[in-house]
Amino acid sequence: MSLRLSTLLLTLVVPFSLVALAPRPATGGGLALPGHGVRSFARAGAFTAGGDDPSGIWHNPANIGGLPGVQVLLDGVLIFQRTRYTRVDSGGNLLPEVQGEGPLIPVPTAAITFPAIKDRLWLGFAFSAPYSPVIAYPAPSYAPCTTEQPSHCLDTVHSDAPHRYSVISQDGTRFVQIDLAAALRLHPTLTVGLSLQNMFVQFVTLSSITSYNGALSSGPEDPDFDSLTETRMRRFFNPSAKLGVIWQPHPLVRVGASFQLPFWIRGDAEINVQLPLSPLYEKSTVEGKEARLEMTLPFIARLGVELRPLPGLRVELGFDYDTWSMLDAIKAFPKDIYILNIPSIDRYKVPPIAIGVNLRDTFTIRLGGEYTLPRLPLTLRLGYIFDRGAATDAYASPMSLDDNKHVVTLGVGLELRGYRLDATFAQSFSATRIVDYRESLAKQINPINPAGAATIGGGSYSSSFSLLGLGVSKAF
Fold first, then answer.
1. CB 446 within 8 A of CB 424
2. Where are the domains of the chain?
3. DSSP label at residue 136
4. Does the predicted TM-score (pTM) go above 0.90?
5. CA separation (Å) from 50 to 55, 143, 252?
6. Residues 6+ positions from 280 with CB-CB distance below 8 Å
7. Looking at 39-43, 246-250, 288-292, 425-429, which range is the least confident one?
8. Are 52 and 43 a contacting pair, CB within 8 Å?
9. Phi, psi torsion values for 351, nearest 5 degrees
10. How do residues 391-424 score in pLDDT, each as one tens digit?
């Protein structure tokens, strides 16, 4: 086979072997907001030791031990995320700024707890979703997608979209988690908990990859060699479990710890590809569009100590550790995907491939509390969070805007006719991240010419979020 034909073969194979790798998991401390629950977030998520309502299941299943009667909770939040990216390309050129704003989607939590054996065993159920904003940037615009093109037409785009090789949109991505929890009191001062979990996962992602070969185009970002790719994955069964313990050595002190086991996500994906405009693809077609994806979401350890020094006053210090380094690679195994009508080759089967995502472990420090005013049905809440991001400067990209964050939280609770009404507001603050384009290790996906792949992480990043939440709960 000639060098030219080998290059052409790889050029055609690339889009179909790599498109399935675009989705980035959006749950867990590294890639989601550092907290959960309206009341809990108002306390900076410091709820591992003091989570004494049904939403405490998320933090520590042992929290539900000792809750009186049947308790029902329903809450929801809106997340307003803002991102700005000004890219410096691999040649040192400053490109136009782009802004990302994901769709505004309410994120609900519903939970119920009840005693199964008096003063010994409590059961609970929770339906929730992680606080994970969905990324969406302006779409690029390649030439019109016509019915004559021998490819799956997805969209049209502006070739000046500097973020397109990382991510264009994840609109449609959803995570929903179900917990079945139990807490057993082993001793008046010691309670253990277990939550059996299942996560419903839907990934939807749109991005571009390149088939620049170093000779047949005007440069590594020539849009004529871009492949617009969309991946859809839906997986209904992703089990895991969480273990927890509460120790109360003194009536004014509670110590809590929990351990979230990893989620091993394995599922089928559907891939659609819009082939490049280059004449090299004129007669090529694709057979098959199914692949299997494999990835692992991290183990999470949480520790909290709550003090109750005065009547009505509760303060908790918490620490979380998320092992995002477990997600070393996303693996794709195409299922009988073939490239057809390649010169001198009739059918070429796309092989398995893996790409490292290079995340680091993260940690979160939380300090929060609440104070119930004397003789008033009003509780005030306040908190502070520091959250170390999972993405390093070297591998930062528009898809990984997970910077170090400082978050200020506040909230209020009101007792009204047997109901507790909760509201919270949170605001994050992050420094602008500057990545030298010469030091960026995040690159285009281009296996046919890795040395010619342009870096895509250089430039400046800024991101922030605001959170508004409302909730209601009642004990029967």
1. no
2. 3-475
3. B
4. no
5. 11, 57, 11
6. 8, 11, 12, 216
7. 288-292
8. no
9. -85, 165
10. 888 888 887 778 899 999 999 999 999 999 999 9
